[in-house]
Amino acid sequence: MSDYKVCDNGIIRDATAEEIAQIKKDGQEWTDNQPAEKLKEIRYIRLQKLQETDYLAMSDNVLNDDMKNFRKSMRDIPQDYDSSKYDELLARDSDGKLTHSVWSKP
Q1: Whether the Cβ atoms of residue 23 and residue 32 lie closer than 8 Å to each other
Q2: Which of 6, 39, 44, 53 is most buried, judged by most C-beta within 10 A?
Q3: Chain-centre distance for alpha carbon 56
Q4: What is the pLDDT of residues 19-64, one digit of tens each?
């Protein structure tokens, strides 16, 4: 009896050796691609945060130091955080709000 099952025309059966190999390959590809997908989401959130403050960076506005530092920290996320920190950057509270301090605007 195999630990791997497949649904074949509505019938659940043990996976063949070839199917098990494909399942494992697909699982590994998904695991290997997670950091890239997480980074894509982080960059999307970063872009939103920068766009929310773009009006402050226009030439006729003077940014205070806190806002300058915030915008710099947004731009620096890819170099300051490696894939081991992606889950922390994407963590959300029960209300769905990002919890990492890097996302907090001044």
Answers
A1: no
A2: 39
A3: 27
A4: 999 999 998 988 888 999 899 999 999 999 988 888 777 655 666 7
- Report residue 25 as tokens: 């390959």
What is the C-alpha separation between 53 and 104, in angstroms, rounded?
12
- DSSP designation for 15: P
Q: What is the pTM of this model?
A: 0.61
- CB-based contact 41:34 (threshold 8 Å): no
**12, β-bridge pairs:** 7
Residue 77: count of CB within 10 angstroms of its CB: 19
Longest dimension (CA), the chain: 71
Query: Contact 103/45 with Cβ under 8 angstroms?
Result: yes
**Token pair in block for residue 37:** 């997908």
